[in-house]
Amino acid sequence: MKAIGIVYFSNTGITEVLVDAFCNELASEPVEMITHKIMGTEIIGGRFVNNDLMKKLQDCQAIIFASPTYMGSVAAQFKAFADATSDIWSEQKLAGKIAAGMTSGGSENGDQSETLRYFQILASQHGMIWMGLDMPSNYNELKVNRLGCQAGVIATSKEGKPFDEDINTAKYLARRIYQFIK
Ligand SMILES: Cc1cc2nc3c(=O)[nH]c(=O)nc-3n(C[C@H](O)[C@H](O)[C@H](O)COP(=O)(O)O)c2cc1C
Q: Which Pfam families match (predicted)?
């Protein structure tokens, strides 16, 4: 069976709602979801350690990166994971896999694009193939890509939950990736 890996960090749960929406969208499809939330306990002396996860990611056809935007980039917890992937970088173990990204921020223009840009660079370092959105901003009835970023999913939140349109964007990305790997 095909597999999609999602590696993410979320502190207050906004990014996690995007991850859940992505997974739920594909729940009835014959695809395994390997979802991993980065935990502080996995970061020992500043270094992310989870060899089992690194092995599992190598069996995926697509890997999604997700993190809140912190100070115009990924959260430190995600960066610790990214740095740990250097162990499989030299042999390009993730090469040829589809990569995509999702992030949330407190501001509508809170430099979330920089987080997606970092994900793209990480994907490129691994020889992965980046997949953004083939949907112009607010073009369809679900208002996918509300914030006008085709590099990936950007969300902001209201009352502790991402905007419905941003959740729809996460679902749209899930469908798009599934179409490519199935
Ligand atoms: C340390 C820190 C830095 C942040 N920096 C930004 C930022 O640069 N841009 C932004 O839009 N929001 C920023 N935020 C807000 C978070 O990105 C936002 O609350 C996000 O939705 C939290 O995601 P989570 O619920 O998945 O943890 C920051 C929050 C924290 C705690």
A: FMN_red
Give residue 27's identity as a one-letter amino acid code.
A
pLDDT tens digits along 101-144: 999 999 999 999 999 999 999 999 999 999 999 999 999 999 99
The CA distance from 85 to 89, in Å, is 6
Q: Give the CATH number for residue 28.
A: 3.40.50.360
Ligand 1 neighbours, Cβ below 6 Å, are 10-16, 68-72, 104-107, 110-112, 157
CA 112 to ligand 1 center in whole angstroms:
9
Q: Whose CA is nearest to atom 17 of ligand 1?
A: 105
Residue 109 belongs to domain spanning? 2-181
Least Cα distance to 120 among 63, 71, 177, 167 occurs for: 63
